């Protein structure tokens, strides 16, 4: 189909639309639908306002990032059921009236179908709140389900006065020796967008299912899901490019030339991208890992293709670190092959104490703490005859690096308490001062 034919087709469709809208039965149907929508919306608003006034807890529940009980889901649906139910009854009555009078009622029939689909769409979205936190449902609805519903509505409306299949074949532009049609534009934009959002939703569902129903390591699971996500997105892009049907030789030549120029300007971006792929495939850095970089202990929150987001444990701030940094700088990880961590504490007691008794007391204190591990076993060592104390080193193993400072603080407080109860002295530093006799004479 040539461009001139395409322009003629578009002009013909616009002319057909104007003629269609000038018909009295069409205008009457549109007026009935408009009045029905206004009344339905007002009724839904009034019912919703009454529900919020009588059930103030509903607003509190909607503000929380949790799932909803069936009771609250039902309350949310009542305004829609009442308002859209009124519209369905009214439109069906007018539809039957039009048919009885021998008038066309195609627009009313489509409006009724759209209302039924809207009701099922609303019931489906609200029902998701039974299993998925509200904030996540709102996000999925805004970015995926609502656009799908809007596309359906547009498709139904356009089908009234346009041959939709013919419209999709209209050529928009010739690119790389190929004709780009309306269908190709929609698939490469709207279709690709919906595919990417659907992949993100799939990743979230698989993540929640895996974490809640299996005992797989969360870091490895999230890294695997990220790889699956990028694979599916890449697959979608390849399918779209294939559907567009570009001339492969011309396309390769142009993209090859662009890649050379872009390569110099985006060298760091590609370096980070490749580094991200290696990080995900090797599994050397995973979400949930505790690392030390730049002299600060941080928890890895997200590993993406370009950068890694870490949360600094000292002040709870977040840092976005380019992935190539992990290949050019030394990195200390405390959760690599073993998430257990060893902590130590030095304790000094008076020279009057029995070292073996002190070791037994310290071990008893350690074993009583619920967050210390028995395997590997804790160790108390007599390490030094200090200047003013007998020095002991406590070594304990913890399940996870997070919380180590708190646990050691609790153990130290318990040691202070037990030593006080058993009259065990923790001596102050002492110094012996010797005054030479010749200095005394000079002073005298």
From TrEMBL:
Residue stretches making up the Mechanosensitive ion channel transmembrane helices 2/3 domain: 227-267
Membrane topology annotation: Multi-pass membrane protein
GO cellular component, one term: plasma membrane
Alphabetical list of Gene3D superfamilies matching this protein: 1.10.287.1260, 2.30.30.60, 3.30.70.100
Limits of the Mechanosensitive ion channel MscS C-terminal domain: 345-426
Entry's localization field: Cell membrane
InterPro entries for the chain: LSM_dom_sf, MS_channel_1st, MS_channel_C, MscS-like_channel, MscS_beta-dom_sf, MscS_channel_2nd, MscS_channel_C_sf, MscS_channel_TM-2
Transmembrane segments: 26-47, 68-91, 103-131, 143-162, 182-206, 227-246
Alphabetical UniProt keywords: Cell membrane, Membrane, Transmembrane, Transmembrane helix
Sequence similarity: Belongs to the MscS (TC 1.A.23) family.
UniProt-recorded name of the protein: MscS Mechanosensitive ion channel
């Amino acid at each position: 189909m040539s461009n001139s034919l395409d322009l003629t087709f578009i002009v013909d469709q616009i002319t057909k639309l104007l003629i269609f809208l000038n018909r009295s039965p069409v205008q009457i149907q549109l007026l009935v639908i408009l009045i029905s929508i206004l009344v339905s919306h007002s009724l839904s608003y009034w019912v919703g306002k009454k529900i919020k006034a009588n059930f103030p807890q509903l607003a509190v529940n909607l503000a929380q990032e949790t799932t909803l009980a069936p009771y609250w889901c039902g309350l949310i649906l009542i305004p829609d059921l009442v308002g859209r139910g009124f519209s369905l009854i009214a439109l069906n009555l007018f539809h039957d009236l039009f048919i009885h009078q021998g008038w066309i009622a195609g627009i009313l029939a489509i409006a009724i179908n759209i209302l039924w689909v809207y009701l099922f769409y609303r019931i489906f979205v609200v029902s998701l709140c039974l299993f998925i936190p509200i904030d996540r449902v709102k996000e999925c609805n805004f970015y995926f389900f609502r656009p799908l519903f809007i596309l359906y509505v547009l498709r139904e409306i356009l089908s009234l006065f346009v041959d939709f299949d013919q419209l999709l074949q209209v050529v928009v532009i010739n690119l790389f020796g190929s004709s780009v049609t309306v269908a190709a534009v929609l698939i490469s934009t709207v279709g690709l967008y919906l595919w990417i959002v659907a992949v993100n939703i799939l990743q979230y569902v698989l993540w929640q299912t895996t974490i809640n129903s299996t005992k797989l390591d969360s870091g490895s699971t999230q890294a695997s899901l990220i790889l699956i996500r990028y694979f599916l997105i890449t697959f979608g892009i390849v399918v779209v490019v294939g559907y567009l049907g570009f001339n492969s030789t011309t396309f390769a030549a142009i993209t090859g030339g662009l890649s050379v120029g872009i390569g110099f300007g985006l060298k760091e971006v590609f370096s980070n991208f490749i580094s991200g792929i290696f990080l995900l495939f090797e599994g050397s850095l995973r979400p949930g890992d505790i690392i030390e970089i730049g002299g600060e202990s941080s928890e890895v929150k997200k590993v993406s293709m370009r950068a890694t987001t870490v949360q600094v444990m000292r002040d709870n701030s977040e840092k976005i670190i380019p992935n190539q940094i992990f290949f050019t700088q030394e990195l200390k990880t405390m959760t690599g092959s073993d998430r257990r961590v060893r902590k130590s504490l030095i304790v000094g007691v008076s020279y009057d104490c029995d070292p073996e008794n002190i070791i037994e007391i310290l071990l008893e204190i350690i074993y009583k703490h619920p967050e210390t591990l028995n395997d590997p076993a804790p160790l108390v060592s007599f390490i030094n005859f200090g200047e003013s104390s007998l020095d002991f080193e406590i070594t304990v193993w913890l399940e996870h690096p997070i919380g180590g400072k708190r646990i050691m603080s609790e153990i130290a407080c318990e040691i202070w308490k037990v030593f006080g109860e058993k009259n065990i002295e923790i001596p102050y530093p002492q110094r012996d001062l010797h005054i030479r006799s010749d200095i005394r004479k000079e002073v005298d």
